[in-house]
Amino acid sequence: MFRFTMKASDWADLVTAGAFAGTDPARPLLTGVLLEVSRDGETVTVTATATDSYKLVTITRTATVEAGESNALEGINDGETVTALISAKGLTAASKSACKDSGKSGSVRVTVYDDRATVSGIYGSSLVYPAELIEGTYPDCRQVVPADSFYSNSDGIKSIGLNPHFLGMFAKLAPWNLKLPTDSIRFEFIDDSRPVRAASHDGRTNAYLMPVRMQ
Fold first, then answer.
1. 57: which strand partners?
2. Which segment, 14-23, 64-73, 141-150, 206-215, is predicted with the most confidence on average?
3. Phi, psi of 195, deg, nearest 5
């Protein structure tokens, strides 16, 4: 068993990784979110990883245990990393309820037992919400992630930033005429100062997203 505590807002960020998890029951490992929890003194670093084999996300947040806060950090030795593979569906539902209980400025407590994980809001109600664990070894996603240098171009521009709000609007555009998960939208980049165009297969839907230069 291990337990850690962090701000509800940071935990809410972490569990959004569940949107990238798979839903195919024939591949149960990919329906989970892998939590990797590392401890350095009283600082805890949590990374959530999820993939459905077509898309992949990793999200990292940290938490510092305040002196005198009881029952906040257990079962994780200094310098140790522990892991848990939790059902994305269960984790999302449990975390939504716990974060609501904790309030905007509260914290959540995450406990992983041998057979389940639980999430609870600390400064709200005393309710504890369970999430199912998934048995098995999660794929080593690091083997397929390119190094940062892979994304650098000849001009030294390391990345192009896009406003997440506009990306959300773009994602809702229809029709893209996509029939299968393997279908794709064509993205066209000219340079770092001009709009990125995304075009549907038939050319009838086009979206233009203005990039932001990232140093």
1. 50
2. 14-23
3. -60, 150
